Structure formats: C-alpha cells, structure tokens
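Researcher: Quick sanity check before group meeting.
Model: Go ahead. Protein one:
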Amino acid sequence: MDRLREMQVFVAVAEAEGFAAGARRLGMSPPAVTRAVAALEERLGVRLLQRSTRRVRLTEAGTRYLDDARRLLAEVDAADEAAAGINATPRGDLAVTASALFGQLFVMPGIVDYLNRYPETRVDALFVDRVVNLIDEGIDVAVRIGALADSSLRARRVGSVRIVLVAAPDYLARCGTPSQPDGLAGHETIASRAGSGTFGTGDWRFATPAGPHNVRVQPRLMVSTNDGAIRAALAGFGIARLLSYQVAPHLADGSLKIVLPDCELPPLPVHLVHREWRHGSAKVRAFVDLLAARLRADPALG
C-alpha cells in the first residue's frame, strides 16, 4: 500500500475513533485497515494510536501527525483539481460550520442551492454555538462573526451585524423605555448562554458620548438558546440582548423594537473563512463564491 493510502486510512480511523468504523467509511475490510495502520506506524517508528476494546485514541505523536496528514491530503486533492483546470466541476465532501441560528437562517439555504447546482457534492453542516477549530474538526468553510484571531485562515468579509437590545412594544408600553444604559436596572432582562458571553450575565458594554460604559446585569431569565431569548422577548417578558440578524424579521414586522439604539457598539464583521492551500479547491471555491454572494445581498447583514 502506498504512503498516501496509508495516510488516508490512518485519518479515517482517527476521525472515526475505531478500525471497524474507519473501514466502513473507506469501504475496506477491518483487517486491511489494521494492517495499513500497523505498516504506517512501523515505517514511522512511532505509535500513532492507542488501542482498546471499545475505541482507539490518538497518541501525542498521532495528534501531530493527524494535522499534517489532513493538510497534505487536502493539498493533494486541491492539486488534482487545479490540474483539471479552474473550471473543474465541484465534487466530493464539504464540511461547513456556523452558529446555530445563523446556520439555519442564512447558511442552509445556500447549502441547498449549492447541492442543487453541483450534484456530485455532499455537505456535512455543523451548526453549533461555539467556535469550531477548522483543522481539528475537519471543517472546510466556517462563518465567523466578530474579529478574526487566526491569521492562518483565508477570510472573505460578507457583511456585518449589530449587538442590539430589543423588547416587545407591549412591554415598553407597560414598563417604559430606558433612556440610558444605567436605566436597565429597573427592567426585566433576558440573557442567552448561546455563543458569546456578551449576551449572558455580568457586564453589558455600551457606547456613550462619554466613552465605553459597562452595566452590570442580573437577568431574571437565562436561556440556553437565542431562540429562547427571542421567544421570551416576543412574549413581553423583558429586554433581551441579541444580534441584529437574529431579530431582523421581528424588527421588520414591528413585533420587537430596538432599545437604546444610540448606545450600540460598533458593528461586528461577518466573514467566510477557510483553510489556505497552495491550490484552490473547486468545491470550496464554488461554495464560498455562492454563499458570499447570497450573504452580501441580504439586507439583514448590511
């Protein structure tokens, strides 16, 4: 078995956390997969996997080798696509991630469009309210909201969103509208544990003519999802802090109103990011181009 094939087998076993599961993914027999990994370890002179009766785990050397193997295999695939020409038809597996609500509202329609345009592709979508490591979790494209910290990623800006306070008109009619951030102390507040701590308990930051201003909040209602915070605000319970795209339909139909608009922080950028290879990948390039065009045209991200 050639070195690249051994590398592919190792990656499949490591990601599936088992020889049998890796064999199923590759369409190989478990004994053949076991032999391939053993041959790779013998050639390298190092143990890559710790075996047990239930699963396999990466050794320290295996963890480092997995990152390098993924990168090299992706570059080989990209080089093949580049050799086939810039207009090569996108094909193969694509892994995409975004936060839960953003993924449902904005990314999923783009994925469906992509799959309909390119029938030889498959997409694995991971919509979770945490920052996903592209390399560790084998992700091709991610949506990032906020400042980018990892300079090794290639990024394309597609819009921006604002951090907003919202409440239902009947709540504001009943309890009044605060005119300054400190006025929140007299109101019911709703917070979400999903995503950034910006929306949870503790200090909520605002921009004022005198400069940045923090307000300590102790929400009476804490929820685990942004959907939950939106529903509570719509029901007239109190004031919620969310991202503008999350409540755009409710702002448009008047079921929610923005509170303290003059004290909002600067908008947060929205980027599509992917790992940088020497050669472009047709499947990644086509998806990023398609999704970027859709997001830039959406007024909720303007």
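Researcher: Fine. The other one?
Model: Protein two, sequence then structure:
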Amino acid sequence: MPAEFGCKNIEKKFINRLIFRDININLKIGSALAVKGRNGSGKSTLLKILANLIKETSGEIYFKIDGKELQREKFYRHMGFVAPYLSLYDELTAYENINFFLKLKNNFSNPEDIINPLLEKVNLYTRRNDAVKHYSSGMKQRLRFAFAVINQPSLLILDEPGTNLDEDGMRLVYGIMEEYKYKGILIIAANDKEDAALCNISINIENYKPGKQQIKFN
C-alpha cells in the first residue's frame, strides 16, 4: 500500500545540550535513507525519535498510509524497528517470544503459519524451541529482525543492524534490507560503507549540529 514517512524541523535537546536541529526528511515506497555520522553524533537518538520511542524537543513526525495520516500511537502497526539494545525474553524460546508478540498485535488462529516461516527466514527454525538465554548475541540480533518484519511493515528502521552478526548473519540481514529497499521504506543508521551503499539517500547528522549550516538532500 502507498506509504509516506518523514519529519519536519526536528530538533532534540537533552537538558540544555542541543544534539541536532532542523532535520527534514520525506520518504516514500522505494526510498532507503542512510543516517551517517561518527559514534556519539546522535544517529541512534534520531532513529529512536523516528521510531516513536522518544519524543523530539520540537518539530513533527508524520506517517501516511494510502494518503491518510496516522496518529502517532498507531505508527507501530506499520513500522518495524531493529536495534541491539532491544530486550528479548530470555527465559522464553524463540517461538514463544514471537507468539507472545503476535498475541499483543492480533489474535491469529494458526500462529505457527506465521512464526515458522519467520524463523526460517532468519535461520533460527532449528533452534526455535531453545530458550533465548542460550542464544549467541548474533542469534538474538537475527531474532530481532524476525520481530521487525512480523507484520510486513511499510517502514523498517535499523539502528546498527550488523551488530554481533557473523558473515552468514550479515548476508541474511542484507537480504532483508535489500527486500525493503523496493517494497517499503528503509532507514539505516549506517556505520560502514556497506550499509550506506544499500541506500539511495543519505544525510550526515553532523551537518545538523550547532554552528553547521543546514544541508538539504533530494
């Protein structure tokens, strides 16, 4: 379905410290945005704002589906988010984690028809009945991707998507990112050239800091 996502004049302060200002973004289906900048520059802060996890100091975020603007509390229905700091239920299995999440979203009569293909997608099916506390950090990161794409969101936001992943894990998640380049809207906090190369638009968040002239992008 047609989707449009963006922000207008976003500014973020922590107490009296200005992190960034005047960020304007407009993305549609087929847009892939790389947010670049050094460690500690504010990339994660911006992505958390865009994912509606924290509040901007000023400005606004908008999300339109089929031309209709969504209320912010309903963004999550059309959005997936991956970050290494997102918590999982370590005492539950991978299957139980996803099933619990599904029940929060909708009541599915045959959850295994959704869960098993998802776990296949992230190469965790054979470990689906193991408690997540026994997973490696890379396996947990792949499980976070399963959560993010569970309802085929129009928008996928990725903060440090390659954290803790080995070469096979990176190939797997790059396949998911490539898929979303074309069928949805993709936003990545890009820490390396490979992440940035996936995207057709980029901004450097350091250009939106105090003393910097605002840089617009196409």
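Researcher: One line on it for the slide.
Model: The chain has one domain: 3-208.
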